[in-house]
Amino acid sequence: MARLAPTMPDAPTKSSIVPVGEAEVDVVAASDAISDVELLSRYEALLTDDDRHRYSQQRFEEGRRRFLITRALARYVLSINCGVASDDLVFGADQWGKPMLLHPCENRVAFNIAHTSGLIVVAVARADAIGVDIEYPSPIDENFEIAQRFFSAKEVEALRALPPKVRDERFFDYWTLKEAYVKGRGVGLSLPFNCFAIDFRDGSRPRLAVEPNVDDGRKWQLDLMSLSSGHRLAVAVELPPSGRPFEVRLSRAVPFNVLASEQSGETGPSRPMAAGIEDQPAPSKARFPQCRDDVSSDCEV
Ligand SMILES: CC(C)(COP(=O)(O)OP(=O)(O)OC[C@H]1O[C@@H](n2cnc3c(N)ncnc32)[C@H](O)[C@@H]1OP(=O)(O)O)[C@@H](O)C(=O)NCCC(=O)NCCS
Predict the structure, then answer these.
(1) Which atom of ligand 1 is nearest to the CA of 70?
(2) Quick check: 8 pLDDT over 50?
(3) With pLDDT > 90 as the criterion, what percentage of the chain qualifies?
(4) Which domains does the chain have, with CATH numbers?
(5) Cβ–Cβ contacts within 10 Å for residue 128, how many?
(6) 138 C-alpha to ligand 1 centroid (Å)
């Protein structure tokens, strides 16, 4: 029977966040269920004008809170990694919307964000680029049709060969890794999902297969893990020229306090963890981002 388990076990967790090491990827996860009014208002004070505009456009309370906690979590993690107050960090975005740090961070830090119902993650590494994705695999009738429409021919064939239940699980492995990779590149879904393939063949770390005119697959380290909450988490990080691999670690920050420049005290979780990742309510069905219908066949792998 095909191997269902992720390619690496749950990463070890730690309760306090420290700057990421040269050969590490830190994935910091937070619950989106923080309800401490004082904490939330402190997060709100950190919003930029642009954030505030997007915040005001969130129609539902759940989305508004997730948006707010995401911004605060990113500032929290990056302030520790850059060694500056969280409200001093200035963010921008590339043409495809990938957030980046404009100022001020003396350390070389790449980061990326993903959220899904119940969970928000920020991944950081001392690398040129990183992408992260998180999904909650749920049986969806049309998984295989989605794969046939958007995945590469090799991936569709590999899925077709699996028993239906295993196929559902593997579909989400593909999806999460593919999205982490396009997020690492920063190009979003403008890079059609059939332009590259995830190769699970040898049972070790998944590999990226891509035509040389699109990218060099050897440049990317892909990692996939299952969280005890059932979420699937994928990271794509660009390797250094030496090819030295990264170790991926998962940490939790629930709830967390942001350290503004005018405040004093320690940066770190403000009190003991109130709710672990395992305690999250069952997330709703996975929702896939709007994808291009006119997938290109020029780059098919
Ligand atoms: C990046 C993208 C794939 C994420 O989709 P998603 O599954 O809905 O959301 P996730 O939770 O995984 O990630 C969302 C986060 O990714 C980050 N992000 C946004 N655009 C990104 C990009 N181009 N590359 C990397 N990360 C991006 C943001 O931090 C965002 O969270 P925020 O809005 O709270 O800041 C999707 O938003 C996208 O493709 N955007 C680019 C637009 C595009 O290419 N459109 C063409 C459609 S054919």
Answers:
(1) 34
(2) no
(3) 50
(4) 128-239 (3.90.470.20)
(5) 14
(6) 21
